[in-house]
Design a protein that fits this description.
The chain has 493 residues and is α+β, with helices and mostly antiparallel strands. It has a domain of 240 residues: ATPase, nucleotide binding domain (Nucleotidyltransferase, domain 5), CATH 3.30.420. 35% of the residues lie in helices and 24% in strands. The protein contains 17 helices and 23 strands. The strands form seven sheets. Strands 17-18-16-15-21-22-23 form a seven-stranded mixed β-sheet, with helices on both faces. A six-stranded mixed β-sheet has the order 3-2-1-5-14-13, sandwiched between helices. Helix 10 packs across helix 15, helix 11 packs antiparallel against helix 13 and helix 12 packs across helix 13. Bound molecules: adenosine-5'-diphosphate. The site of adenosine-5'-diphosphate has 16 residues, from helix 11 and helix 12.
Length: 493
């Protein structure tokens, strides 16, 4: 009896394994944190062996705690921190360097050179990405540049590159499968998202040998089987997607115009644009949402750097709350923002302002200003920064949308969600299962094996927890125009 799907959620700070049943119910979760290595200012690494060991341990643990045997698993779905770059030896399976994490800035100079040589446009045109150290390509180049023997080993086919999904699958299959899916490939900056190929011209610019790259698969496809010894019996690996794309799928944002926003430390907003690869006028990223049976669905992605982090700042620096969740009651202690606007530019301002030098500000303070007003203005700031992105995405994509699906830690804040609905004048919908990333990977796996028959079948499983209906009032309009006016005051460009 193949009853369950195991999702492996390989995050930036921890490896998680989550078990789902056929109704999409989460039965158990196991999680292990792993070491964050900071060798220098701006450098961030992970130990690939630790990623693998913690992931395998989490998988075994969740099966044991739920009393489920590997033979009861239909399949495994994998979702992962994107862009993080690993290179290993095909024969020994040994990494040649630590994983260079997406946050790592060491290759900023390589990116500046690309831009100075006038080649940034070609990368953007072909990959949908803005040339940046964030993506895998320059990280691969950097590792190969460390030692000439590495590049020659890469050229003769001895080395393999992969993002974390590839690395886990390589290990799960005992080196039998060297693959990645189209969503992860679309974050490398060397994958042509229009023709679905590793791009020879871009590889040449960066001197990356094609022979080290994984085969690109659908996001939902049986791509291999785990070594029997690992979990007790072999299990099919049938779903792969980068974390934000998996969350978009887990939220069943399957129609063009569907959007999900994740409220964590920052906000990650991603909109399904269907078969159209929309080029943003605001440096938002064009990316692959998923590839099913060879057909690509595209998405446009924008993020806000500071969201939940603003609440952390109020908790840890200003100490006006003890716990993040207390912000809601404090903000509810007043009926409006009392004229206060909080511009949350704590680490510059991203899309659509793109001003790294902007700093934050709390404006409109009077003698009557209370803590509650600042708390409310902070929640409004999170919603308004998300609004900034959503408005631009709508313009870019040329579609309007009716609702926003939400997840992430701060989406549990009902007041924030109501403010968000008011600010975008659209329904905000929070699902019952907020582990949408893991759920998306499970959905992709189960679709490939026939465990679930279709996307429509999945729609019957997705359950709404709460819907926030916009209330339009003069106050909302006032808050928006106050915001548009005040944010200009912190811009340096
Ligand atoms: P991440 O995955 O980025 O670590 P999470 O999804 O776990 O983030 O969410 C944690 C973030 O959400 C923290 O920045 C925290 O300040 C914020 N947060 C958590 N609960 C609330 C709440 N009830 N209201 C507002 N912010 C919250």
């Amino acid at each position: 009896m193949k009853k369950y799907i195991l999702s492996l959620d390989a995050g930036t700070t921890s490896s998680r394994a989550i078990l789902f049943d056929q109704r999409g119910t989460q039965l158990g979760l196991s999680q292990y944190e792993f070491t964050q290595i900071f060798p220098k200012e701006g450098w961030v690494e992970h130990d690939p062996i630790e990623i693998w060991n913690t992931q395998l341990k989490a998988a075994k643990d969740v099966l044991e705690s739920c009393n489920v045997k590997a033979e009861q698993l239909d399949s495994i779905g994998i979702t992962n921190q994107r862009e993080t770059t690993l290179i290993w030896d095909r024969k020994t399976g040994e990494p040649v360097f630590n994983a260079i994490v997406w946050q790592d800035r060491r290759t900023a100079e390589i990116c500046e050179e690309i831009t100075a040589k006038g080649m940034a446009g070609v990368f953007t045109e072909k990959t949908g990405l803005v040339v940046d150290a964030y993506f895998s390509a320059t990280k691969i180049k950097w590792i190969l540049d460390q030692d000439p023997s590495l590049r020659s080993r890469a050229k003769n086919g001895s080395l393999a590159f992969g993002t974390v999904d590839s690395w886990l699958i390589w290990n799960l299959t005992g080196g039998a499968s060297h693959v990645t899916d189209a969503t992860n490939a679309s974050r490398t900056m060397i994958y042509n998202i229009h023709d679905g190929q590793w791009d020879e011209a871009l590889l040449e610019i960066l001197d990356i040998p094609q022979s080290m790259l994984p085969r690109v698969t659908n996001s939902s496809e049986i791509i291999g089987t785990t070594l029997p010894a690992l979990l007790g019996s072999p299990v099919k690996i049938a779903g792969i997607a980068g974390d934000q794309q998996a969350a978009l799928f887990g939220q069943l944002c399957t129609q063009p115009g569907d959007v999900k926003n994740t409220y964590g430390t920052g906000c990650f907003c991603i909109m399904n644009t269907g078969t159209k690869a929309v080029v943003s006028q605001n440096k938002m990223l064009t990316t692959i949402a998923w590839q099913l049976n060879g057909a690509v669905t595209y998405a446009i992605e924008g993020s806000v750097f500071i969201a939940g982090a603003l609440i952390q700042w109020l908790r840890d620096q200003l100490q006006i709350i003890d716990a993040a969740a207390d912000i809601e009651a404090l903000a509810e202690s007043v009926s409006d923002n009392g004229g206060v606007t909080f511009v949350p530019a704590l680490s510059g301002l991203g899309a659509p302002y793109w001003d790294p030098h902007a700093t934050g500000a709390i404006m409109g303070i009077t003698r009557g200003t209370q803590k509650g007003h600042i708390a409310r203005a902070a929640l409004e700031a999170i919603a308004l920064r998300s609004r900034d992105i959503i408005v631009e995405m709508q313009k870019d994509a040329g579609v309007s949308f009716k609702s926003l699906k939400v997840d992430g830690g701060a989406s549990n804040n009902n007041l924030l969600m109501q403010i968000q609905a008011d600010m975008i004048n659209a329904d905000v919908i929070r699902p019952k299962i907020t582990e949408t990333t893991a759920l998306g990977a499970a959905f992709l796996a189960g679709l490939a094996t026939g465990y679930w028959s279709s996307i429509d079948d999945l729609k019957n499983l997705w359950q709404e927890d709460q819907r926030f209906i916009p209330s339009t009032s003069d106050q909302v309009q006032k808050t928006i125009s106050q915001w548009e006016n005040k944010i200009k005051k912190v811009l340096t460009n």
